[in-house]
Amino acid sequence: MKYLIHSLLRTDLVVSLSRFGFALLVLSCCFATTAAEAQTTEILPEKHLEFRGISLGQPRDAFADSLRTKGYEITTPQHPTSSSSVWMKGRYDSFHCLLELSASGNTQIVDSVTVWFQDVNNPVGNYRVLRGFYTRRYGQPVADNFYNIAELGYASPEEQLASDSYATLFSLDGGTVTMRLSYDPKEKAYKYSLLFVDHQSTEKAAEQISDNSNHIDEEW
User: Fold this and answer.
1) Paired strand residues for 109
2) pLDDT in tens, 87-126
3) Residues 174, 198: contact at Cβ < 8 Å?
4) Is there a contact between 196 and 56 (Cβ–Cβ < 8 Å)?
5) Contact, 110 vs 201, CB < 8 A?
6) CB-based contacts of 204, cutoff 8 Å, min separation 6
7) Are 90 and 117 in contact (CB under 8 A)?
8) 55: nearest Cα among 113, 98, 107
């Protein structure tokens, strides 16, 4: 931009231009430069996280219909972690699993999907294997609570994982994926999960809750 104006000042063209005409010329150059810079610096909206190639952030019924085309079926688990979620069964990464489709507030927009792996052989030993597998898929974790249980002196892995579960967090465009292994003493079972959280949907749900809360406060 400054080089253009400088070259204009050094030519005979300026002499023949009126002050008004010259001002218009400079302003038109400035506007053109500003428009180009605005296009260059435009921030694209963050995309939604995907699960099995299906974008989260859409109505839960539509999301479930898309999963049906991939072989998943609606089901009712024996010990559901949430009665408000929609549950489906199928396979994920070669494991039998249950899918928990969650929506926050009254939006009915899917903001998270939890894959509950079923009947994983040697769950403690397999965590290291799956952790490596998902690291190759998603990149290095941004947080990782994975350790050698034997070095802590606990009587059993169940006792340790009941109080301090394994958890590995990956950051992706549009959200996060968290792999977790814990132990439930009541059910006497390991809980193996992969949690997909969509940033846009959770933020919108939080805004809705905040707006509802402010509305209640105003009424009072």
Assistant:
1) 59
2) 999 999 999 999 999 987 677 899 999 999 998 999 999 9
3) yes
4) yes
5) yes
6) 107, 109
7) no
8) 113
Q: How many helices (H) and strands (E) does the chain have?
A: 7, 10
- Count other C-beta atoms under 10 Å from residue 219's C-beta: 6
Residue 18, C-beta contacts closer than 8 angstroms, at least 6 positions apart: none
Helices (H), 49-97: 60-68
Show the tokens assigned to 130.
């799956």
Both tokens of 79, joined, read 């010990």
Can you list the alpha helix ranges (DSSP code H) found in 80-191? 123-138, 157-163
Give the mean model confidence (pLDDT) for residues 159-165: 93
Closest Cα partner for 101 from 82, 89, 114, 117? Answer: 114
DSSP bridge pairs for 100: 87, 114
The token duo for 210 is 């905040």
The type of residue at 177 is: V
Which of 41, 204, 8 is CA-nearest to residue 109?
204
Rounded to whole angstroms, how far apart are CA atoms 29 and 5?
9
Instruction: State pLDDT tens for residues 73-97.
Output: 999 988 777 778 999 999 999 999 9
Q: What residues form DSSP beta bridges with 50?
A: 55
pTM across the whole model: 0.73
Question: How far apart are the C-alpha atoms of 171 and 10, rounded to whole Å?
Answer: 54
Report yes or no: 86 and 64 within 8 Å, Cβ to Cβ: yes
Q: How far apart are CA 93 and CA 97, in angstroms?
A: 9
